[in-house]
Amino acid sequence: HYAHRAPWLRAFVLGANDGLVSVAALMLGVGGGSDDLSAMRLAGIASWVAGALSMALGEYVSVASQLDTEEADIEKERQQQLKGPAARAHELQELTEIYIGRGLTPELARQVAEQLTEKDVIRAHARDELGIDMDAMANPLQAAVVSCIAFTAGALIPLLAGSFIHDPTGRLVAVALVAVLGLAVFGLTGSLLGGAKWFIGASRVVIGGCLAMGVTFGVGRALGAKVT
Length: 228
Description:
mainly alpha
């Protein structure tokens, strides 16, 4: 199934796409307003570092918050089991009704609920009542590191392409070309992983990225001309 095909890889592609667009757009914006190579290079490096750290921090906070909520829900289930036979009977009935709702007969649903309760009552309620897989809970640090690496992978594409070309026009063309090519590759990869039509997926990413880069270049061109 496409929904279960390497979700971390799809997330990595999206992060790399963010890094590519962010850095390429800023470099084109600065390059549109100034011919100074060092200024454009510094803008790209600053965008890369700031973007990677921002993505990592945002992902860490988001996943940590999710983990806190999941752990609080699991602890609440543990407390319910400690309230006595009446509370445990109520929880067992909740589990039974969940399985009935999924299509089992009341008798079979009761048997399944009892057997899963005997094996691991907390895990059964976490999975079937709360939708939490206790074997695959979120890891905030891992998510932050992957997000940072993904952003960096995309950011290095335009940064390396435009940081060593002294001709202003050639520099802008190089950044724009590698950015469009990278967007096409990321869009195509994301489409193939998600089972979508490759042309539509790639076109969507390329058009969106080009729009962002074009607007930023235009702003830099206009403001740079005024300063000069």
